[in-house]
């Protein structure tokens, strides 16, 4: 601040806050309960409207100096997992528990706790606990068109899905509150989730409050407040509990599996040396039906697979090839004779019907002789085709290649490697199903 | 220019005027309300005792709002049917008058924009004020929208407010029992406006909700154990 801009404003300039010797202001104010005369401690004087006597349980209006009793002592003081006056550090701020509310849903079957937290500088927050799941809650000053409860709500690029609407009732109160509260108070709430967040709208007479709830692990609460007793055991899945089977992690493991399978495939391809061992390109006629043809011999130098890539020029017709891979006795390391058989059907049909164009099959077929030992081989083959029925000739085109790397191997590897991500995926889905089983809505099901 | 001090017409103690913007002040010793006139000050009554509270602010505290330094010079404690809040009168280094509203731990600094509104918006505000002449129609204003300088705000709160007590320097006389209609409006994410309708006219303020840390306060109050 300079004198030039504001000559008559010798306002305090920035200084390290607490001056030595600066008086501290009392932070707890005490008054006597109008019912039992016991001491009621106020920790948020000025903001607090309602206080509950810790001795007799009377609900007292402290908004003005009159201290009128809103509700006579009606129930015994209960112990709660976190007690009034406990302090804990959450999100870098120390909070003091000053109020406690036990609420139930409209059916009176489900109960949860709401703790009011206070810090004289940061204001108020809430901790909500249900079935051992905790959320840290902050009211937000955000303008919303009142959403209709079956639509998603967008906030800060997060998509919140409708989860539950309810008409909760206050069942028990202790401590102090900055609004008028008593046992039996009702509200209407609508919750939307986008784990770890939950957006909560609360409607009471003439008032609406929007809150952002963030999931907090029970350990964090335990470490922050260090309560003397164990916190409630965590049951089921919380509405805004983050899914531990993280989608990013899943995608990563699946991507790694894909990468490994691809690497194995490419390195196998690089290590193998494919070589053509036989080409059959011959025109046959119906007279060749049920005849066997024999190829020239060829060498397989070491154990390998043999790819049989066949073509038949069929159009709305069929062809069938039979192959026997016959090893000559005395050849190779293992000198026994050996025969491998394969039949290949090639069919190609297409046309138009009421739905338009359709087609089925094709003119190509690729299959493999796998684990063929070294040796000298011939191929004995036969051919048949629908073309022969029409008296037409057909050219068969077959290429035999050794040492290829079939893509089926890649897919088998991939399938094996995908078992773990698939398992994770199922766990993830199961977690989500449990979450949404508690919802009014079960999207994606 | 340093603080201008005037002797209190009742007790003789020095009443500091930190800013030339304020015309009214309350003697910090005997709570005599004074109004500043040409050459001196004149007593206009006695102010009620301010109830104690846990507000972190005090007269003499300072902070920043949108990069502009401001100082707190006065306060009104406002009550309504269901509670109370603080309106801290602040003056920024660029000599604008503002109020830091402090309610239930939420902070909303705002500056008066009444004079900056164009005729259309002024008309709308006047219409709104006219509707409040009938207290029965006040609740019906909730949820309505009104255009102010830059945006269309939604009315989220309509309260009949009454000054409980005030302290320090103020731009107008705020005796105990001073009644106004107080409307809170929001727009988008945390944009805040307030319309105050009183016997002495209608005022419009625009600002936003901020967090304590954003204010970068100095000379604030310190509490035992905190």
Describe the structure.
The complex is a heterodimer of chains A (445) and B (226). With 445 residues, chain A is of the alpha+beta class. Chain A has 2 domains: 197 residues, no CATH class; 132 residues, Jelly Rolls (Sandwich). Helix content of chain A is 15%, strand content 42%. Chain A contains 5 helices and 26 strands. In chain A, strands 3, 4, 5, 6, 7, 8, 9, 10, 11, 12, 13, 14, 15 and 16 form a 14-stranded antiparallel sheet that branches. In chain A, strands 18, 19, 21, 22, 23 and 25 form a 6-stranded antiparallel sheet that branches. Chain A has a 4-stranded antiparallel sheet with strand order 17-26-20-24, with no helix packed on it. In chain A, α2 packs antiparallel against α4 and α2 runs antiparallel to α5. The N terminus of chain A is likely disordered. Chain B has 226 residues and is mainly β. Chain B folds into 3 domains: 43 residues, Rubrerythrin, domain 2 (Single Sheet), CATH 2.20.28; 53 residues; 97 residues, no CATH class. Helix content of chain B is 8%, strand content 49%. Chain B is built from 2 helices and 15 strands. In chain B, β4 and β5 form a beta hairpin. The radius of gyration of chain B is 18 Å and the shape is globular. The N and C termini of chain B lie far apart (36 Å). The mean pLDDT of chain B is 89. Chains A and B meet through loops of A and β7 and β8 of B.
